[in-house]
Every structure is written in C-alpha cells, then in structure tokens.
Amino acid sequence: MSDPPPIRILLAKLGFDGHDRGLKVIARTLRDAGFEVIYLGLRQTAGSVVIAAEQEDVAVIGISMHNGGHLTLGPMMVRAVADAGLEIPVVIGGIVPAEDVPTLREHGIFAVLGPGTALETVVATIHAAAATHDGMVG
Amino acid sequence: MDTDATSPAAAGPSPTATSDGTRVGTTTLGGVPVEAVYGGADLGEPGEYPYTRGAYASMYRDKLWTMRMFAGFGLVADTNRRFHELLAAGVTGLSTAFDMPTLMGRDSDHPWSVGEVGRAGVAVDTLADMDDLFAGIDLGGVTTSMTINGPAVTVMAMYIAVADRRGTPRAALGGTIQNDILKEYQAQKEYIFPPAPSVRLVTDLMRFTSAELPRWHPVSVSGYHIREAGSTAAQELGFTLANGFAYVEAAVRAGLTADEAARRMSFFFNAHADFFEEIGKYRAARRIWARWLRERWAVTDERALRLRFHAQTSGVSLTAQQPEVNIARVALQALAAVLGGTQSLHTDAYDEALALPSEHAARLALRTQQVVAYETGAARVADPLGGSAYVEWMTDELERRAEAIFSHIDELGQGSMLDGVIAGIESGYFTGEIADAAYRYERELAAGERIVVGVNEFTEASAPPPSLQTIDPRIESEQRTRLDAVRRDRSSEAVARALACVAEHAGDPTRNVMPAIIEAVHAHATVGEVTAALEAVFGGYTEAAVA
Question: Which end of chain B offers a freer environment for a tag, N or C, measured as fewer CB atoms within 10 Å?
C-alpha cells in the first residue's frame, strides 16, 4: 500500500499588504507537518487565487491579512470561490480582532487563526478544513 | 526622525522642540549630584569618534530624544485631528502613517485599494489631501516624519508643494522621509519599480534636498522592518548598515560627496525584547558606521560620521494574550533604546497585536516615554552602561557578526556594497535568511525553549478584549468622492503635460526627476498618476514567491 498523497494547501496574501512573516512561518510549519504547500506569495487577487486553487487542485485556501481589510476581502474571497463553482474552505490568518470572527464565519470563512495561535492549532485547523473539502467532493 | 540638533538651522526656537533638556536633572532622587558621563579614556567618550558611547557629548542633558508618535488613519481630517491632539499632549514631532494604497503609490480608486483605504494609515491621493493633513500646522515650525518608500518622491513633492503654496520657504522644512527602498525588497515588500531605478529615485531625492532643503533627512535607513520580518539583532544590524553603505555608494555615483550624502542620512532601529543585546546593537551600529565611512570613503565631517537614529519598540513582540502586559514590554524596550542613545522614539500601543492602536492606548504609550525620561533618571548620564563587561562584550560580538555579513555582501558585489545588496535582493539571500530566523524562533517558542509570558507560560483564560480602534467603512467612498472632485476641477491638459515631463525626465538618467514631479503635483496630478508615469519608464517588479 502506498501512502495517501499529501493534502495540498494554497497560501497567499491579497492586495497590497506585504506582511509575509507569518505566512512564511505557516508555509514551513505545514510543509513539516506533511502538507504540500502551494505558496502564491504577495499581491494576489481573489481571482488569481481561485485560478491557482483550481489548477493546483488544493483542499484548502489560506489567506493572510494584517491591514484591517479582512471584513471586505474575506467575504470577497469566499464569493470568488463559490462563483467559480468550487467548494474549497477558506481560512484566514493574521491580525483579526476577535469581535470580527462571527461576521467572517457568517460569510462562510471556515476558520480565523488570530494572533498568538499555536502552530499545532494551525495544523489541526487545516486538517479539519481539508476534511470538509474531502467530504464535499467525496 | 528628528536629529535637528545637528542642524544649525534648527537652533532657533520651535514650538514642538524640547529645549529644556536640563529637566532630566543633575541630581538623583536622593539628592546625589551626578556628572554627565562616567568612565576613563580607555572607554572612549560620547560625542567622539567612533561614537560607541553616543552621538553627542552630553546626550540627553543637552537635548532629550524626540517623542515622536506615529499616527495616521481614515481621512486626512481624522489624522489632522490626531496630530493636534498629540501636539497638545506633548509630542515633539509628527510622524505620518499612510494607508496601503498610498504606500504602494496607488490612488484610492485603484482596484486593489478595496478594503484598504484609510485603514492602516491615512489616505493621500492629491495635493488637497496633503494640504488638509497639515491644516493649522506651521510646516516651518514642526519637524515631520513621513514613513513612505516606493512613492517617496511623489509624497515629498506634495509636502514641498504645500509649503510653496503657503509661502513657507523650502529651506525651513525640517523632518525625515523614510525613502529606504532596499529594505522593502528585503523585508517590508512595499516596492513598486525594480531595484536599480528605485535607487536612482532615492539619490534624486538626496540630491534635491541637499540643494534645497538643508534641514531635511532624505533617507532613514531602516532596520526596524527587517527585524519585524523575523531577523536576529545581528542581521538587523548587518543588513541595515550594508544598505546604508549602499546608499552612500549610490549617492557618490550620482555626484554627491560621501560627506554630503552621509551628513543627512539617519537610521531607524527596532527596540526589541532582549535588553542587553539591543543596547549592544545600538552601540555597535555607531562604531561600525563611523569606522566604515572613515576607512572606506575617507569621510571626515563629524556630522556624517556620527550615526543618529530613531527607535521604535517591537510590534511583533506584543501579544494578543493578556494585552495589558504589553505596557511592561514597551516600557523595557523603550528603556533599552534610551540606554542605547536613541535620538527619537516611538513607543507602541499595547493593543497593537489586536488592532490598530486606540487613542487611549497611544496616549499610554507616550506617557511611558515620559516616565522613562523624567522619573527613572536613565537620561541623566550618557551611556550609563558603558564599561560593563557584558555590554562591552555584546557590542564587540554584534560588530563581529555584522562584519561577517558585510564580507559576504561585499563578495556578492565584487567590492561594491551597492551591487552586493542588489545581488542579494535578486538572489533571495536576504528574504531567505530572514525567513529562516523567523521560523527558528517560532519553533523554539513551540518547543518551550523560549518563554513569552501569557503565550506559552503563565497563561490565563481569555479576558474580555479591550476597546479597539475601528475604521468607519464609509471612509473609502468619502475619499473617492474627494479624489473625484479634484479630478473634475483641475485642468486635464496641464496634468497630461506635467506627467509627460515626469516620464521624459525619468527616462533621462542625467536629470533629477524631483522638479518635474513637484510641477505635476502642483497641477493636481495624483499619487497614482505619477506612479503610472514612472512605471511606464521603469517597469514593475515581482519577487520570486519562495516560502
């Protein structure tokens, strides 16, 4: 029996925000945890993320937000995924105030990993998100 | 940052300058009189080459550091109100945070500006915005710091144009524009054009201010962002000073002397958590700068040899858990910056790990500086830790580690620090080193090898979050309305003519592009339009996405 193929996750930053320290740490953490990480990096749009997500057949989309634009860009990302006919869970990481989390969840964000989230929590959350994706397609 | 003590033009009275340095006192709380400095000849003296012990002989007895609090959010009127409040609360210099679209040289109606307008700073699109930002503030009477890099030439042009319109002489303008593009490719990622033409814009601004704004600091070589992106203290020191050497070299190639270039350059360092390592870093920075300038470029002017810096406490060291504990962290980091001899200081607000700083938290941060200045006695004596075996060793050790970095970069550039830094940017050397260090730290934290209070030890059940700063979502549409009004009321022929001139001068490396940009913003060209004109000549830049 061969090992199951690694779970593929896409990581990106939307728009102008260049704070990529956290996202790079997450990329390495997930890689060490056995994920296959598609790192799109900076200056992406919801559209470019969706195209890459479809081409790379990823199970989870992770976007990183540090400039206070999450309430606009988070829902926009979820809409773009749905408009493309995809069912891929979207996870947001970065500086997101706790009071904004319920709103983001209502807009279909799978999870918000705020400041100070332990690395093992990140790994567990991405596993949980990937499991819902498997459920959707399976 | 404010380093006006070096400038003869700044000797006159200024409503925001601290002219009462003696208020730090000459006796202890118990009445013991103390000298301005202690130590023997073998330690060296503050204010003397190589300046390890401080940029000036009497340090804070002569002039306290500038308490400069970074502010900017929403519409220009909101930030202008915060500026007036800060001046009333006792800050001695203004510092402007711009929003992401402005930092990237784009207008508020650019497609990527959605969700970003007025959020992490103030939105400035046109001359009208810059004028309203400084409404009721005498530009000749304050010093202003503007934290912007990619479109620094355009924003500087707008500040100059506002002064022109108000009849304030350009020579009276004092302050700093960050204009440090090299660290953008290495850490903060707010670049627009490729490295070589970007460095040309930096030297154009250096040449322009050297000729017309003698009180202005046209480059603030910044290690802060390199450190925040995850570097170690030694990397912050090594990369930042290498960038400083690169700018000196670029300015010399552009026709300035090394003395002229270095005289108006200043630095911006992080004030991080490891107390003695930080103090050693500042002391080593002054010594390295003076030695390299003297030995490599034969600089003799004291004003060029003495490194002056602004410090800011570390944003990434602040925790979302038990956020009030951040007040203690900020106080200790501020004390390290003062013991390391900073000329200017921003203290972070305790709620910054949760959101943009609230007014209450920003005021507490300023009060923290005032406690360090007036209550602790730390400002009474220059370099009070000089001569400590540990601090002297740490200073030497960080210098050694920085020298190893310089050797590598010099090799990459085959004897040119400028070429070496650009080669290191293009090969991913800097971003790779920084990402490695950031990951190493997170792993150590996860393994419990490092302790952060409230994060992996001494944790508590989550408390109700403090009241946070929020940004009204209507700001974006209001700013677009302001922008539309400017576009409607201006002469589009005049704008087109001025922008064509910007492009023409950008395409001619023998010209300085600053006068054409000043003309363009006078004609109400927007930040985004000037960027587009330059981009048509220089092209854009995309970094290789490597994690």
Answer: C
pLDDT at res. B465: 62
Among B346, B418, B412, residue whose Cα is nearest residue B202: B418
* Buried b or exposed e, range B179-197, using 16+ CB within 10 angstroms: bbbbbbbbbbbbbbbbbeb
Mention every residue, 6+ apart, whose C-beta is less than 8 A from residue B145.
Answer: B1, B2, B68, B93, B94, B95, B96, B175, B176, B177, B178, B220, B310
Residue B496 is predicted with a pLDDT of: 98
Nearest residue to B10 via CA among B214, B156, B219, B308: B214
B458/A contact by beta carbon, under 8 A: no
Beta strands in B228-304 (DSSP E): 265-271
pTM recorded for the entire structure? 0.91
Distance (Å, rounded) from C-alpha B134 to C-alpha B16?
A: 15
- The side-by-side arrangement of strands in the sheet containing B219-222 is B216-217, B174-177, B143-147, B93-97, B66-71, B344-346, B309-313, B265-271, B219-222
Angle at B186 between CA B282 and CA B309, to 5 degrees: 25
Do B357 and B315 touch, CB atoms closer than 8 A? no
Which of A10, A13, A14, A24 is the mutation pick for testing B, counting most B CBs within 10 A? A24
Q: Does A21 touch chain B (CB under 8 A)?
A: yes
Nearest CA distance, A27 vs chain B (angstrom): 6
Counted residue by residue, chain A has a size of 138
Mutate to test the interface with B, among A14, A16, A35, A101 (most CBs of B within 10 A): A16
Cα→Cα distances B36→B25, B177, B341, Å:
10, 32, 13
pLDDT at B3 exceeding the cut of 70: no
Residue of A nearest to B545 (CA): A41
Q: Give residues 53 to 112 of A whose Cβ lies within 8 Å of B.
A: 66-73, 76, 95, 97-99
Return the CATH superfamily for domain A8-137: Cobalamin-binding domain (3.40.50.280)
Cross-strand partners of A14: A44
Tens-digit pLDDT profile for residues B402-450: 999 999 999 999 999 999 999 999 999 999 999 999 999 999 999 999 9
- Amino acid A135: pLDDT: 56
Neighbours of A108 (CB within 10 A): 15
Least confident of B84-88, B104-108, B146-150: B84-88
Closest Cα in chain A, distance from residue B102 (Å): 10
